[in-house]
Amino acid sequence: MSIKAILFDLDNTLLDRTRTFERFTNGFIDTYFSHLDETREIFDRIIELDQDGYKDKEELFAVLLEELPWNVRPEQSELLAFYKREYVNHALLMEQAREVVEELRKKYRLGLITNGKTAIQHGKIDRLGIREIFDVILVSEEAGVKKPNRAIFEMATAKLRLNPEQCIYIGDHPVNDIEGATNAGMRTIWFQVNQPWRDHIAAAPLHTIKHLGELPALL
Q1: What is the pTM of this model?
Q2: How many structural domains compose the chain?
Q3: Got the DSSP string for 128-172?
Q4: Whether 51 and 108 share a structural domain
Q5: Are 93 and 20 within 8 A, CB to CB?
Q6: Do 111 and 189 fall within a single domain?
Q7: For residue range 142-180, what is the model confidence (pLDDT) as tens digits?
Q8: Which of 164, 154, 122 has its CA nearest to residue 141?
Q9: Which of 98, 99, 182, 185 could form a disulfide with 203 if both were Cys (CB 3.0 to 4.6 A apart)?
Q10: Sign of CA dihedral 84, 154, 188, 2
């Protein structure tokens, strides 16, 4: 079947999650550790513990509360509220993301499937100003299922009224994105960012890219 739709992951695919979280972390340190002259170790430790976004945030802040040299130790609820309020304000697009999706929009229907909390993910999408570009947006918390479960990909194709074989999915995570979409019957393109490929993964993407600007020539 001919390709009718292109679907994307959000974090570290369209959203530059690395720079977004680094910007948030700098703001977090400015707010809570202004009493310190040197904060590089704190920055590095937060980035390490965050695990490229895969660390549960309640667990992350619980560890930070125990480890970091607070002047006045806040409640965990305060830190979670700070994260929910401030993180989305630092959202940044990947280089050429807008240009690429707007170019693809001329030829294909577009979808977005992302794991995460509803308020956070929708907040980032709105901050980036990309909501109106997509025909379908699915966030795992409100969908009730998350990648790599094939059901969330099937929800997207159902909303698009397309067969999986008519869709290409693009994402950075070998299991959640590439294996998940492949198991749902989609073809895939792996965006190589931070997540390494694992030997046990049987899914075979059509292409591997290292920059979004490579996409238009492939599609």
Answers
A1: 0.92
A2: 2
A3: HT-GGG-SEEEEHHHHT--TTSHHHHHHHHHHHT--GGGEEEEES
A4: no
A5: no
A6: yes
A7: 999 999 999 999 999 999 999 999 999 999 999 999 999
A8: 122
A9: 182
A10: negative
